[in-house]
Specification:
Shape: rod-shaped
Largest sheet: 4 strands, antiparallel
Structural class: alpha+beta
Radius of gyration: 22 Å
Number of strands: 4
Strand content: 35-45%
Distance between the termini: 83 Å
Mean pLDDT: 81
């Protein structure tokens, strides 16, 4: 009887412990296109900014859909960039992280970019 309870407890601990899968995917999903002819160096890289969004799922329920997560990360990036005048974002990159456990999943999206300012 004690051995059965001990084995059951051991099985629960193993099942709910740090077993999991992690994955990272990097995308360049910048769908906007701007054509600039640079005959001379008329721009300056001002900053590098990043925006994040994260969501947790329990039993695959809860949180945002993938596109909403991407949109939230991009909105966070634009808020931090605080673009003014002749500034623009370049080299926009999207990174997606997933941590999967048996009953619990965490998805995180990080969007990063460089802020450039064009000179007259």
């Amino acid at each position: 009887m004690k051995l059965g309870k001990l084995l059951a407890l051991f099985a629960v601990v193993i099942t709910l412990s740090g077993c999991g899968l992690n994955s990272t995917v990097v995308y360049n999903l910048n769908s906007s296109q701007t054509v600039v002819e640079l005959g001379e160096r008329n721009f300056e890289i001002i900053d590098r900014v990043q925006g994040e969004a994260e969501v947790s799922y329990i039993l695959f329920f809860g949180g945002r859909k993938v596109q909403a997560l991407n949109d939230a990360a991009m909105a966070n990036l634009l808020e931090k960039a605080n673009l003014k005048g002749s500034q623009a974002l370049v080299n926009v990159t999207t990174e997606r992280y997933n941590e999967s456990y048996i009953l619990y999943n965490v998805a995180k999206v990080i969007v990063s970019a460089h802020v450039v300012e064009f000179k007259d």
